[in-house]
Design brief:
Distance between the termini: 38 Å
CATH class of the domain at 170-247: Alpha Beta
CATH architecture of the domain at 170-247: Roll
Strand order of the largest sheet: 1-2-4-3
Structural class: alpha+beta
Order of helices and strands: HHHHEEHEEHHHEEHEEH
Radius of gyration: 21 Å
Strand content: 15-25%
CATH superfamily of the domain at 170-247: Homing endonucleases
Amino acid sequence: MYDVSTRERALMLVAAGRSLNSVSKETGISRAAIRSWRTRIEPRRRAGRPCPRCQETPSPPEDPAAYAYLLGLYLGDGCISAHRRGVYFLRIVLDNTWPGIIDACEAAMRSVRPDNSVCRVKKQGCVAVTGSSKHWPCLFPQHGPGMKHHRKITLEPWQQAIVDAHPWEFIRGLIHSDGCRITNWTTRTVAGERKRYEYPRYFFTNKSDDIRNLFTGTLDNLGIEWTSCTLNVSVARKASVALMDAHVGPKY
């Protein structure tokens, strides 16, 4: 006998496009069992706690700091897709190079919807951290057809209030998804000698003007100086980089 969480995870992996054979190898569950769950035993969803946005008086998520971080990740590298029986999958696709960010993403997803299933779907060079819930569109009303940079992206007032209260978590989520910290270099002539100087800077790159504006607007509120060129936002001033290092830091 397998518990509900184990069955849900196996079905989520299959629903994400994995073959029965690969899911069987990863989980140790027979293909016959997984096949039977798909066709006749669909696991019962735990009732869990209600969605905070669907109550008679809507309220913010239980862990607003985790939500602000997850919102940044979603706007950068996330998508929401419909599954059967009114269930939605939230997927955040992250590079295998940064296992710490993958762990942080999973923790945030579990904090935002504590009673829903979360799993990791392995892909070539990356991992899709995937959570199932009927309420992801309630929690992320930016969900819609097509790519984010092809549609208007704005925050609801309740989302903006969370970002205003937890701006660094939001910035971390955006940097962890579509940003980086790099070391640049330049040369200067000092006393007739050409010398090389290195300095750190942060970059954020996104095709959506709206998402870049959410990023820079939050930086403005934090007193971070930035410059922009086409799709890139750069933070290179020494004091601003020091603040970013204190609250964001390199990917890990």
